[in-house]
Specification:
58% of the residues lie in helices and 11% in strands. By secondary structure, it is an alpha+beta fold. The chain has 2 domains: 2-105, no CATH class; 110-165, bsu07140 like domains (CRO Repressor), CATH 3.30.240.20. Strands 2-1-3-4 form a 4-stranded antiparallel beta sheet. Helix 3 packs antiparallel against helix 4 (78-98). It is elongated, with a radius of gyration of 23 Å.
Length: 170
């Protein structure tokens, strides 16, 4: 067992307290592979259009993994924390898929910002959207600059604005 510890220390610099360039390279490779495994374990939601719920886990995992590369004492202790966080993320996603109230609490909810061609200014202010933001998204995503053609526009939980046209075309 001591031979294994010496071997790992030689590669990763775990016991010496001194981390050289080659230790950082070896750690980076291992943490990169572990990071890919964690993202795969986190499910496809984790890397698609992200809600705040998804972004926060990505930031935390990234921060923890970067510490595992540069800090000798944290190399092995960070990994269980990352796994626990990913499993917690999956558990919360599972609960949210079965409970709308819980889903709204952790992911937010959508908000109607245009209804029957009229901009809902109160909803726009609550969403911190300017008219220019709405018009830009209307031009880019709905291929029109005419709000009057829009039956419903929603600010979705992930921050995108979706549009349904008056005539049903979307």
């Amino acid at each position: 067992m001591e031979d294994v510890n010496l071997y790992l220390d030689g590669i990763f610099g775990l016991e010496t307290g001194e981390v050289n360039f080659l230790h950082l390279i070896a750690r980076s490779i291992v943490i990169y592979i572990i990071g890919i495994a964690l993202v795969r374990l986190g499910n496809k939601r984790f890397v698609g259009k992200m809600t705040a719920f998804d972004i926060i886990i990505a930031i935390i995992i990234g921060s923890l993994l970067s510490r595992a590369i540069t800090n000798t004492d944290l190399f092995f202790t960070v990994l269980p924390a990352c796994i626990v966080l990913i499993l917690l993320h999956r558990l919360f996603a599972f609960i949210a898929s079965h409970s709308d109230k819980f889903g709204d609490w952790i992911k937010g909810n959508d908000r109607v910002v245009v209804e029957n061609g009229e901009i809902l200014w109160k909803a726009m202010r609550k969403s911190h959207l300017s008219e220019q933001d709405l018009m830009q998204t209307l031009r880019l995503n709905a291929n029109t600059a005419d709000v009057g053609k829009i039956k419903i526009a929603r600010l979705e939980r992930n921050g995108d604005i979706s549009f349904i046209f008056m005539n049903g075309k979307d």
